[in-house]
Every structure is written in structure tokens, then in C-alpha cells.
Design a protein that fits this description.
It is built from eleven helices and eleven strands. It is α/β, with parallel strands linked by helices and 295 residues long. It has three domains: 85 residues, Arc Repressor Mutant, subunit A, CATH 1.10.10.10; 96 residues, Periplasmic binding protein-like II (D-Maltodextrin-Binding Protein, domain 2, 3-Layer(aba) Sandwich), CATH 3.40.190.10; 104 residues, D-Maltodextrin-Binding Protein, domain 2, CATH 3.40.190. Strands 3, 4, 5, 6, 9, 10 and 11 form a seven-stranded mixed sheet that branches. It has a two-stranded antiparallel sheet with strand order 1-2. Helix 1 crosses helix 3, helix 1 packs across helix 4 and helix 2 packs across helix 3. The longest helix has 28 residues. The mean pLDDT is 89.
């Protein structure tokens, strides 16, 4: 296989010596030399400068080395995934998610995973971003999904997951909804429906209001995205929410999107893990499915 020849080539390049590479690979030195010769013949280029004491990469060899490392990594990933298809994945995963992710994105992902790996027990805790961060730090959860800016720290690994579009919505028939484009100053002195402190959505909307110097006339606070959505639909006020949570209501006309001039709002979703938390095969497979098959 070409991967065998690349493995030999990479080992020779890293050891700068044919005999040392042959020893590491449990091959004869002539066998190592044959692999290198076959590669050079196939590529039509000299890959190594040879001397009695050591070898070094030619310009062509440096190019092949760089790409060979990538090919090896991808091959190892593919081999691991294929191995997982043969092995029965069992165990349990304690998952935490902030409201938008836990209520509107994860259910479909979990259903797909459970259909393929029915022996894995999935338990989901939904809370606001700060609650999920605290639970992961306390090793109460194996993994967490949070909204907004999550910073890697001495105890947490942060993996970027996906982007999320934020929009401003209003009740059907709201005075602002008659405008094709809403100027930012038209958001002044409006009644706003907000999430509670500690929520990623609340942190995002607070930052937006601070940056644009928007002053609410009055605000109402709800501790769930569902509550915010229902309050807006009932006519309580306007809100900044993820497009995920209102896509059905936008389609039916229960709420209306306010299109703000020259404004595109976006935030990040992240996966968080405790650095010292043990990771099971079930969690490894779950993460691969999420990170390699994203919407």
C-alpha cells in the first residue's frame, strides 16, 4: 500500500538515517531503501540527499513529507472509524447543553446517534450557559454544549462547534414589523423580553444593547427560550433570539423578524470538556459524529 511506503519515508525523514528507520519499523535496510526508491520512481523526483552519516530532505522530499503527515493522520482517523463500526459501543454519556442547543439542535443529533448506537445510554441536562460550565467543571457532566464565548482555561478544553444567527423578533402586527428595514435607533424605548442573567442569549443581547446604546422602555425576564418565544408571540415585547428557536413561528407568522439595517448578528456554539475527565469510547464516537457531520 502507498501508506506503507509513506510511513517508511516519514520515518527515514524524521530519523535522518536509513538503518535507524529500519530498526524502528522492523524492516531490513534494503527493504527501506526499496520503498524509498519506488516512491522516487513513482513521483519522478529525488526525495532524499544521501550521505554515509545521515540523509536529508530534498525540496521535493520536504513537499512530500508535509503532505505525507496529513495523509497518515487522515488514514489513522479512517481506520479508527472503521474499527468502531465493528466494535459494539456501549456505556453512558452525561451531556449538558444550554437551552437553545439542548432544545432545538441536540434532539435530532441524539436521535441519529441512538439509532446507530442503541447500547449507549444518553442523559441530557439542560440549563443556562453558566450552569453547564459549572457542572462540567465539577465533573458532573462528561461534555457540555454552550452558547457564546467560552474561553479555554487551565481546567477546560473548548472545541468550536457551529455558528448561530441571532435575530430580533416582534409579535405579529407590532408597529416595527411594518418597516421593510428597521433602523437601529428605532429599537430605542421598546419593551424587551429577555433571558435571565447567566444565559448565553442574555449575555449576547446585553452586549448588543451596550454596543448600540439601546435603552429598553421596560423588560421582562424569562428563564427559558420557550418562555421568551411564547411571550413575544403573545404580544409582550420584542426579543433577540437564535433563529433556531423561532423558525416554525416565523413560518406561521406568529412572530415576525425585524430586519435591522446593516446588521448581521452571529455567535458561536462550543463544546466544553474537563481536561482531567476520563473519556470513554462512547464519548469518542459521539464527538466524532458531531464534529464531522454538522449542519
Amino acid at each position: 500500500m502507498i501508506t506503507d511506503a509513506l510511513k517508511v519515508f516519514v520515518t527515514v525523514a524524521e530519523q535522518s538515517h536509513f538503518s535507524k528507520a529500519a530498526e524502528l519499523l522492523n524492516l531490513s535496510q534494503p527493504g527501506v531503501s526499496l520503498h524509498i526508491k519506488n516512491l522516487e520512481n513513482e513521483l519522478g523526483a529525488k526525495l532524499l540527499h544521501r550521505s554515509p552519516k545521515q540523509v536529508s530532505l530534498t525540496e521535493a522530499g520536504a513537499i512530500l513529507y508535509r503532505h505525507a503527515k496529513v495523509i497518515q493522520a487522515r488514514y489513522d482517523e479512517a481506520r479508527q472509524e472503521i474499527q468502531m463500526l465493528r466494535d459494539e459501543v456501549t456505556g453512558s454519556i452525561q451531556i449538558g447543553a444550554s437551552f437553545t442547543i439542548g432544545e432545538y439542535i441536540l434532539p435530532k443529533k441524539l436521535a441519529e446517534f441512538a439509532a446507530q448506537y442503541p447500547q449507549v445510554n444518553l442523559q441530557v441536562t439542560i440549563g443556562n450557559t453558566q450552569e453547564i460550565l459549572s457542572a462540567v467543571r465539577g465533573n458532573q457532566l462528561d461534555i457540555g454544549f454552550v452558547e457564546g464565548e467560552a474561553q479555554a482555561s487551565s481546567d477546560l478544553d473548548v472545541i468550536p462547534y457551529m455558528k448561530d444567527e441571532m435575530i430580533v423578533v416582534a409579535p405579529f402586527g407590532h408597529p416595527l414589523s411594518s418597516s421593510v428595514v428597521v433602523e437601529q435607533n428605532m429599537l430605542q424605548d421598546q419593551v424587551w423580553v429577555l433571558r435571565e442573567l447567566g444565559s448565553g442569549t442574555r449575555a449576547f443581547s446585553d452586549h448588543f444593547m451596550e454596543q448600540t446604546a439601546i435603552r429598553p422602555k421596560r423588560s421582562y425576564v424569562f428563564t427559558s427560550s420557550q418562555g421568551v418565544k411564547e411571550a413575544v408571540a403573545a404580544g409582550l415585547g420584542i426579543a433577540m433570539v437564535s433563529r433556531w428557536i423561532v423558525h416554525k413561528e416565523l413560518a406561521t407568522g406568529e412572530v415576525e423578524e425585524l430586519r435591522i439595517r446593516q446588521l448581521h448578528l452571529e455567535r458561536s456554539f462550543s463544546i466544553i470538556r474537563h481536561k482531567e475527565h476520563s473519556q470513554s469510547m462512547a464519548l469518542d464516537v459521539f464527538l466524532q459524529k458531531l464534529l464531522f457531520v454538522k449542519k
